[in-house]
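User: Here's a chain of 274 residues. Predict its fold as tokens.
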Amino acid sequence: MFWTDTHCHLDAPEFNGDRSGVVTRARAAKVQQVVLPAVEKSNFNAVRELAHEHSFAYALGIHPLYVERADDGDLQQLREQLCAHRTDARLVAVGEIGLDHFVPGLNRARQEMFYAAQLKLAREFDLPVILHVRRSADTLLKQLRLIKVRGGIAHAFNGSEQQALAFVNLGFKLGFGGTLTFERALQIRRLAQSLPMSAIVLETDAPDIPPAWLYKTTAQRALDKDVSAQACNEPAEVPRIAQVLAQLRGMSLQEVNEATHTNARHALPGLTAL
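Assistant: Prediction complete.
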């Protein structure tokens, strides 16, 4: 069986010393496809080049945590990039876009302006979107009802069941990853059990959101003299995350594999051609 990681920042500096090793380990774990979302103008080229180098997929967008250092002209550059690469089979979405209401001090009005503008670009280019959802589900949903797009993925979903079903009703899949491997993540684990299996895709958000077996506290990290021992999350962790999901739902690993494979391609139809 082969797996898909629907969200990985392979261009992140944490991987600079071992990026090829990350890809090799992913392949060894039978992670066949990995989606690489951009976060700002400066890494549009990086995610595209990595996708082509490793036969992965990519998305172009401006992340809500980066909008305050983005110029309004960056939206025009995003449009130009989407236009220039609209025939690139590896370009499968607009993302990572969305809203972050967790980090204090961010300009919410500016985030929302960038979010709405990028939804319009996704509609113009008929692409799904990859959404950053952090304490912002209701506002994201409000804009999605106003600006219709062809669905996509609500990445690292952590809202309520009502909000989850609202995204599903708008044609979205929900991304589950390392968080569901923690026994104390009760809400996430309940959602992973109760939502329709047709709503779930797997992701890592590598190098972030490590699963329980990789997580280290601040104190543990301070004791690590060898920086390489401070394990980052990687796409290779997808099958083990899937095993936790299978246990939570009382399904076989094969059933989870088949369902999430299908779901990823429904969320991001461009993956089918790859």
